[in-house]
Amino acid sequence: MSAAGQGVRVGVARERAPGERRVALTPETCKKLVAAGAEVRIEAGAGVGAGMTDEAYRQAGGQVVADAAAALNDADVVLCVQAPSAAALTALREGAAVVGLLAPQADAERGAAITTRKLQAFPLERLPRTTRAQAMDVLSSQAGMAGYKAVLIAAQLAPRFFPMLTTAAGTIRPSKVLIVGAGVAGLQAVATAKRLGAQVEGFDVRPETREQIESLGGKFLDLGVSAAGEGGYARQLTEEERAEQQRRLGEHLKGVDVVVCTAAVPGRPAPKIISAAMVAGMKPGSVIVDLAAETGGNCELTQPGETIESGGVVVAGPLNLASSGAVHASEMYARNVFNFASLLLKDGQLQFDWDDELLARTVWPERAVG
């Protein structure tokens, strides 16, 4: 905790993960934190990948420091996109709060460092999906950018136009695009493909998504299998249901030009929806972009981080797509993070209200509410 009379010290370092261009603090949210009484330190160059200069942070009241150690080591609150390394976490002050996409259970050393230093880790992927938490929901804000970019990648890879065109050489039929999964990423993908002029369908085993897909101009693909579950996520299908879904989907894919897969459940491997046999049945020149590649992919042939060809069908497994739209992705992410961090700041001091469900259910290891 900061010494008496001092404001909360907030630290932000440059992201070290390969290819990561986002930043957890923008000049906009830096200014808000300073106005709330915080002392903000940010490593030089932290915002460059997202088009945010050191001077912009200085004008917002932040202190630009030379390296990560100067930004983080005596911070009360550390804001990040992806988790700092175990070594960086070990160097933090004992009891500091760390807010970001931390995935502590995915790395034993990282989890041990959090426990050893008694850090108050808030992995935002654990945030409850409640109405109150919507303004802090980084998974949704980043999924929107990822869904948008996935369709642009598909359009680039497809050897055809998306829209219908009438030309002197004849009429070009619109591409048939199927979006698998109708979460935030999937719905953004439906909207983007529609704007590009494609004939768009959306598929999800949750029947309540029909209205959302249709509201964006897509057609709901009904395969006769429902997996409505709790909390907005799908339940596990029975073997019989899954087999029937696979059969009907395989038949439908024979007439589809582009598939964008977005079906994912946080903390679990992505469900395998498109088999190798289905891909083999698709037309040569078809394209699959698998947004779920980071958790194993919805397509059996997906290779994370690679674009391959199988029987004339291109299968792309892009990673960290939100980072490719770093400017707007960072703006949304930083606002989400600021809204969550505001729960920790009371009268200019760092305080943890463990009766607050959002804090109690997001902190790792989890605490009991009340």
UniProtKB/TrEMBL annotation:
Keyword NAD carried by entry: yes
| Keyword annotations from UniProtKB, A to Z | NAD, NADP, Nucleotide-binding, Translocase
GO term, biological process aspect, one: NADPH regeneration
- The EC number(s) given in the record are 7.1.1.1
What is the top-level taxon of the source organism? Bacteria
- Reaction it catalyzes: NAD(+) + NADPH + H(+)(in) = NADH + NADP(+) + H(+)(out)
Q: What's the top EC group for this one?
A: translocase
- Output the SUPFAM superfamilies linked to this UniProt entry: Formate/glycerate dehydrogenase catalytic domain-like, NAD(P)-binding Rossmann-fold domains
Leader peptide range in chain numbering: none
**Chain's role:** The transhydrogenation between NADH and NADP is coupled to respiration and ATP hydrolysis and functions as a proton pump across the membrane.
The residue stretches assigned to a coiled coil in this entry are: none
Outline the extent of the Alanine dehydrogenase/pyridine nucleotide transhydrogenase N-terminal domain: 11-146
* Homology family: Belongs to the AlaDH/PNT family.
Gene Ontology CC, one term:
plasma membrane
Keyword Iron-sulfur among record annotations: no
Residue ranges of domain Alanine dehydrogenase/pyridine nucleotide transhydrogenase NAD(H)-binding in the record? 155-317
Under which name does UniProt file this protein? proton-translocating NAD(P)(+) transhydrogenase
Q: Which GO terms describe its molecular function?
A: NADP binding; oxidoreductase activity; proton-translocating NAD(P)+ transhydrogenase activity
